[in-house]
Amino acid sequence: MSEYVILRDLRLTGNMPSGFTSWWHNLNQVSVYGSIHHSTAFWRLRHFFREHGRMHTLFILCHGYAGSSNARRQSGDFGGGGLQLGLEDVTHGNVSRWSSIRGYFNNIVVYACAAANTERGAEFTTQDGQYLMGALAIHTNTNVYAADRIQWYNSVNFDFGNWEGQLMRFPPAGTAPSRVSRVPVDLSQMLR
Fold it and tell me: What is the total count of domains within the chain?
């Protein structure tokens, strides 16, 4: 159980470093080949799981829907509206589809802007990132790690550096998230 997998949306610019040995799958927003749920990413993950068994960590590299708050009606370091991943994104309306890869990973680490952001007044709305990340943890039966602020990265080598804002762990049991100082495996450590 030492495998690492990356799902990366091509709207996140940059190239995977040469010599990177973990499996990855690029997604886009314009064709069925960019689909998470239909015939591509989940199908490949299920195949990979049958071949290798339970995997340690799934890294999700994408943009988060961040930059404004509907509740506050202003722009800023907000988010929580979902992940720009593949043809269909990851939203409150489709997160339950992730149950098709339930139990495949020990951890999911989300490198996306404000994925876990929930502004006051946005609780239980489509801008509730903590609710969305918690739902992802429940549907995949996996620990999910995500931060509540806009993240910065080096597009040459996908080095995200230190986490901006508060990093949180969402347990698969559906209990409250906890603040953590690091993820079990940091992508930048793997890419060196």
Answer: 1
